[in-house]
Amino acid sequence: ILKKYVDGIPTETDLVVKLGETIELKAPKGSSCFLVKNLYLSCDPYMRGRMRDFHGSYLPPFVPGQRIEGFGLARVIDSDDANYKSGDIISGITGWEEYSLLRSSNELQLRKIQLDDGIPLSYHLGLFGMAGFTAYAGFYEICSPKKGESVLVSAASGAVGQLVGQLAKLHGCYVVGSAGSEQKVDLLKDKLGFDEAFNYKEQTDLDAALKRYFPEGINIYFDNVGGSMLDAALLNMKVRGRIALCGMVSLQSLSSSSQGINNLYNAIPKRVRLEGFLQSDYLHIFPQFLEHVKGYYKEGKIVYIEDMCEGLELAPAALVGLFSGKNIGKQVVCVAKE
Ligand code: NDP
């Protein structure tokens, strides 16, 4: 439950977990609802935007005093909707609670999950869920990659970034990732197959760092953070480079609206294309994404790192940890295993 709207970087105490309410585990007759038991919840940076009193975004703010919601994986346990039956596993927007009563609508992005041997169920929230799909849609639809091109990915060890980097490598690109700790840098190079990686927190001059890793410039920047990394990338783009504006996690907790961007002019002489996107605009290619990425996964060509915390009571810490980089890989909360 969100206590009140948040200013600055959110803390665990901005959310409260209330335990012990008893409910009847039934979907009321005639309600067209179905009741689910929530199994896994996804922690996503966009949820920070819903913790402030701002109505101009693509999603409305959470309501203080009410339980929050987000992407989750759940098992249907009772249903008054002919499309969902007891035992189905679904993904979509669900409540941050043990059980949720849902009514089907487009906004919930509901999807039935086909269980697949060898794929951990929780991966349907990360690699085969919204985060993985964001990487896929952003890389192929926005970045227009070509073999041999140079690619920079920020927040590279996170839920989205780790897949962008691996897809870029499979496409024959040279890939460099930035991340916020030595442990993450090692993961990028040793486990995720990035050509190079660096800890952005250790750089006094990001422009100089990018010039070291990209002496001939950057073709593609997949931007998960905005702010000073975007500004430095703008100084290092090649002619006709592409910047996919995926997210700006570095700005999400700032109260000022300043973007910290001084180098946008460079996009003109270099004819750089900057394009923001929302994964939800590309859902028509979701089946193609699943087939493509499941194939890579089953062939052992990609791996995925998850950061799993056990228990709803740890969910507030897991969510706010995204904004200080505590998560290593896709942050998921396990509410119940089955
Ligand atoms: P991550 O798993 O990457 O977690 C967030 C990471 O952001 C942290 O681990 C941390 O990594 C980094 N971070 C936190 N604060 C800062 C900061 N001040 N400056 C720089 N980095 C910071 O999250 P996701 O992969 O789920 O999301 C990545 C981005 O993609 C986000 O911006 C998100 O909003 C966006 N997104 C966009 C979608 C779309 O449709 N456009 C859909 C889904 C996600 P580190 O330790 O490396 O700093």
TrEMBL record:
Domain Enoyl reductase (ER), chain residue ranges per copy? 49-333
- Judging by the UniProt lineage, the source's domain of life is Eukaryota
Q: Which GO molecular function entries does the Swiss-Prot or TrEMBL record give?
A: oxidoreductase activity, acting on the CH-CH group of donors, NAD or NADP as acceptor
Keywords associated with the record: Oxidoreductase
In its UniProt entry, what is this protein called? Answer: Enoyl reductase (ER) domain-containing protein
Native species: Eutrema salsugineum (Saltwater cress)
